[in-house]
UniProtKB/TrEMBL annotation:
This is DUF1501 domain-containing protein. It holds the Pfam family DUF1501. It comes from the Bacteria.
């Protein structure tokens, strides 16, 4: 059947997905995937501003060398299990953590030596650690896992699928994520819906909603449609002709939709460029050689331009790769953690400079954790992991959740130190969504498994 003959609701969905998904792979040169559709949404943002920033660590971050057992007994077990990839204990003294609520059994933990910037934020109460969080369908015990008597996340330990389950609650092929579904609730409260969900690192299902479509930016600002914003082949007439060609109304519905999206992206480019040009320069220093820092810098600038962009609620996505360290973990992982710590530290400082720290919350995520056991020079795919939550409203200096035992094939893992999560992504997401203003009745529409958990607020916020 020709799409023009489809029932109206189906045709609308076809158009939505065509602009949101079908064009995404070819969108960069012409900024075709920068639009949000702006249909009515169920949630309003209120009169205040809040932003949520996801820092996704692609490849599966190694939890064992990010948050390291430090008390003598636990460290001895850790060092025995990890062998050559263990961080020497004498390197951990400067980043040993003293939480505001002590861990049970006199346990102590330290951040990786490279994460001193985050240690400072932990000590000041602006950053906390969510322990052993991962993808789950419902609360699951080790006995239930072994018996396979409860539903489990699909395709565990698979990069693509677990990235998608983390971001979307569904395996690879999902078309919406919980960041985008959260954005759906705030479209009607934002003056310009295009800027509700902003991705500074390419394309991610986390940012796709039913109505909200991720607006992609480069680290220097709007993705420029250069062929129509400056002379084409030295000719302004050529540029004007191209602009007419790709924005003029058309009789064919597919051409009409394509040109409508292009026109909207050109308008968004103008708005973003103008807003960023009007923003006073930030004095906070972001390392120009740190790709994650550069992404977070443009996020900070866009947050600083929130009034010009006409938004009250925003969801942002940034990312960094390189964490799939089956080999060379002792050589490569420290540099990655340095980049994460410095980038997040600079970003928090920028939110303080902008006077908006209490309204911005940043959290880390990754495909999965890794094995506590070493494979010789690295670690293999795991499940649960530890993650950070940072912001001026965060009740930090704390660990949330259950600290796993430092054992292999013990009570907390499914083999080789693969942690069985004791906190679900849905619970983490629900806590963040509630802080953003998503109502309790709307939470299941954002995080479909949240009804399986009695605890929906993990206590991150003051």
């Amino acid at each position: 059947m020709h799409p023009s003959k489809l029932p109206q609701l189906q045709r609308r969905e076809f158009l939505r997905r065509a602009s949101a998904l079908g064009l995404a792979g070819t969108a960069a040169p012409f900024a075709l995937n920068l639009a949000a559709l702006g249909e009515a949404a169920a949630q309003t943002a209120g009169n205040d501003y809040k932003a949520l920033v996801c820092v996704f660590l692609y490849g599966g971050n190694d939890y064992g060398n990010t948050l390291v057992p430090y008390d003598a007994t636990s460290y001895a077990s850790y060092a025995t299990i990890r062998g050559a990839i263990a961080t020497p204990r004498d390197q951990l003294a400067a980043t040993a953590l003293t939480p505001r609520i002590a861990l049970p059994d006199a346990r102590q933990m330290a951040l990786a030596p490279q994460m001193g910037r985050l240690k400072t934020l932990f000590d000041s109460g602006r950053l906390g650690v969510q322990l052993n969080v991962g993808t789950l369908i419902q609360p699951t015990t080790l006995a239930q896992y072994k018996a396979q008597s409860v539903p489990l996340p699909p395709k565990l330990f698979s990069h693509n699928d677990q990235q998608s389950v983390w971001q979307a609650s569904s395996p690879e092929g999902a078309v919406t994520g919980w960041g985008g579904r959260m954005g759906d609730r705030f479209l009607s409260g934002n003056g310009n819906t295009t800027f509700t969900c902003i991705n500074a690192s390419g394309n991610a299902v986390f940012m796709a909603g039913q109505q909200a479509v991720q607006y992609q930016v480069a680290t220097n600002g709007a993705v420029a449609v250069n062929a129509v914003t400056k002379p084409l082949y030295g000719s302004q007439q050529c540029a004007d002709a191209l602009r007419t060609l790709i924005t003029a109304p058309r009789s064919h519905w597919m051409e009409q939709e394509l040109n409508r999206v292009v026109s909207r992206s050109l308008s968004a480019q103008t708005i973003v460029s103008s807003a960023l040009n009007a923003l006073p320069p930030l004095t906070t220093v972001f390392d120009p050689n740190n790709g994650l820092a550069q992404q977070l810098q443009i996020v900070a600038k866009l947050i600083g331009s929130r009034a010009s962009l006409g938004v009250k609620r925003q969801v942002f996505f940034v990312s960094m790769g390189g964490f799939d360290l089956h080999d060379f973990l002792p050589n490569q992982h420290p540099g990655l953690l340095t980049a994460v710590s410095e980038a997040m530290g600079a970003f928090y400082d920028a939110t303080v400079e902008l006077g908006i720290a209490d309204a911005v919350t940043t959290f880390t995520a990754s495909d999965f954790g890794r094995t506590l056991s070493s494979n010789g020079d690295g670690s293999d795919h795991g499940w649960g992991s530890h993650h950070f939550v940072m912001g001026g409203a965060v009740k930090g200096g704390r660990f949330w959740g259950q600290l796993p035992s430092v054992t292999v094939n013990g009570p907390d893992d499914v083999g080789q130190g693969r942690l069985l999560p004791t906190t679900s992504v849905d619970q983490l997401g629900a806590t963040l969504a509630s802080w953003m203003g998503v109502s309790a009745t709307d939470l299941p529409g954002v995080l479909p498994q949240i009804g399986n958990y009695s605890v929906k607020d993990l206590g991150y916020f003051v």
